[in-house]
Amino acid sequence: MKNSDRKNKLSLAILYSAIIFATLAVALVLVATAAYLLVEFGVIFEFGEMTRDIGALVWLIAGASLVLGWTISFFTSKLTLRPVNHCISEINKLAVGNLDAKIHFSFPYTSMPAFVEVEESFNKMVKELRNVELLRSDFINNFSHEFKTPIVFIAGFAKLLRHANLTEAEREEYLLAIEEESIRLSQMATNVLNMTRIENQEILTSKCEFNLSEQIRSTVLLLEEKWSKKEISFDMDFPEYMIVASEELLKEVWINLIDNAIKFSLQGGEIGISIAEHEGKLTVAISNTGSEISDEDKLRIFSKFYQADTSHATEGNGIGLAIVKKVVSLHGGEVFVESQNMKTTFFVTLHIK
Predict the structure, then answer these.
(1) Which of 82, 276, 282, 334 is the most buried (most CB within 10 A)?
(2) What is the pLDDT of residue 283?
(3) Domain end: 152, 172, 199, which one?
(4) Phi and psi angles of residue 338, each rounded to the nearest 5 degrees, phi first
């Protein structure tokens, strides 16, 4: 990629250098030819003795070349600067929030690698910005709806609790509903705050050595209430592995991945968790049976606000996997997903030290 960038920049520099050189060369040739013809036919000597002086003739040619060169450059610059002006115009559109901006060069610029790269890079950037804006809008709408729903539930059940003729069972039911919706609100707020905190973090400052295997087992126990409701079993057969990393941040990774596996597992399904060591790296694989992730969604599920389940039949706000991606990236690791034959597996690879 770096070699390609150097070649494109070099070709662009050569192009503009060639244009400048050609402009000066054309001006010089035209003026020299004109001067030669004037001398050849004796016209130039009608202006007096000074014109017979070679030095004066040289100055005359140089001055005429300068004037003619500037004139030619002025008109040719419109052609050479056309792609630059086009870029500036589209960038200004983008700067004011117009996501319909698009760069498209015409011939002969389409045959030059540097301009082709500029066109492709700019249009790709605009496309990504458009997707992010769409996801952000969807997130705001979905989050507002999901945030409002538990508030309405809490307000409604609280209002019912004011009635004096409630049975003890009804009172207990309403209190339980208020508790569950309050926890749901808290989890949504926590996810947003975690995303903001992690997104602004560029370096790890709290690395320590800890037992990764024990951390994953503890996370499974932490989510027991969720997987026990769906009667999900776990297949966890791995030895003890120690790792040097941020214990707090990695816990967020396992919470989000295991919680996702629970949400998308079938009733009575099984979740598999394994750890493998290879060449100084640990790879954690978390798999579940259920609906598959399409190839298109695989490319987007780690993007902030993106939800593969557009029906919103399952809980979530499109933040969890973005947190996973960011945390793993901070650790210099990799995360990817495989999904086929009704089985989805997330792989997280981390350096041991």
Answers:
(1) 282
(2) 95
(3) 199
(4) -125, 135
For residue 331, give every residue at least 6 positions away whose Cβ sits within 8 Å of its Cβ, in sequence order, or none.
Answer: 204, 245, 246, 249, 250, 350, 351
Same structural domain, 241 and 284? yes
C-alpha triplet 123, 126, 128: angle, nearest 5°: 110
Neighbours of 57 (CB within 10 A): 16
**What pLDDT score was predicted for residue 1?**
45
Q: Is the dihedral of CA 293, 297, 298, 300 positive or negative?
A: negative
| 83 and 117 share one domain | yes
Same domain, 109 and 85: yes
Phi then psi for 343, rounded to 5 degrees? -135, 130
The reply to whether omega before 108 is within 30° of 0 (cis) is yes
Residue 276, classed as helix, strand or coil, is strand
Number of domains into which the chain is organized: 3
Q: Tokens for 107?
A: 């011939």
Provide the whole-model pTM: 0.55
Domain contains 300: yes
Contact (Cβ atoms closer than 8 angstroms) between residue 162 and residue 117: no
- Provide the residue range defining the domain that includes 61: 2-128
Residue ranges of alpha helices (H) inside the chain are: 2-40, 54-80, 82-95, 113-161, 168-199, 212-222, 224-229, 247-264, 295-298, 320-330
* 45-49, 88-92, 169-173, 259-263: segment of lowest average pLDDT: 45-49
